[in-house]
What we know:
Distance between the termini: 84 Å
Number of strands: 0
Low-confidence stretches: none
Largest sheet: none
Shape: rod-shaped
Order of helices and strands: HHHHH
Mean pLDDT: 77
Amino acid sequence: MNNGWSYSELVFPLLSFLVVVLSIILFPFSRVPIDFFPNALIIFFSYIFPLVVFGVFIWMAIKANNELRNDKELTEAKITLKVDKYSGIVDGIGTALPLIGAALLLYYAVKPNSSEIFYGFAAPLEIKSIFLLASAKLFESMFDSLAERYLTIVRNENDNAQILEALKKKIIEFSHEDIVKLDSISKMASQSSETLNGFVNNLKDLSNILGKDSGQRSSNK
């Protein structure tokens, strides 16, 4: 079974990764007050968090491919079930992040004396989460390509199995009389071949005899 990644499957993770990189470059948490968030936490949310999310996407894709590859009794229903399970996780993460960001945005919007946190953390987090949602949607297209690849393999195997089954049925449908007829035809062909070979050998012997007789006459003269 061919289980290598195709170009159509890899192009979507690449586009998804580019969106993650944009979220890191364009919206770092540079205005968050240090007394509210430690510097290490600011660095994590600015640069590491989007990469961690994308790493989870990659992990889900690898797990989906491994499960499909290692299943020895793969069916179309199983393919759909497995792919939907892992693509659903990616979609759930991508959808949940903007909702969490929106909740924090509303919280700091109504909280008194929190304008620095609102503009320095909540707003960039929401924008970054929207980028990650776009990344998740692009990544989901890879699951569609993955499912299509395994569906094609399973359908081809099913077609081959149906052809073999049909041939088996045709062979089984031969009656005993048909087999006897085929056997008699084979024997007749064999006997005809032996008769023909004997006839050819007799011609060779006759030719040799005639040749010797002609040579003796020539010498007598």
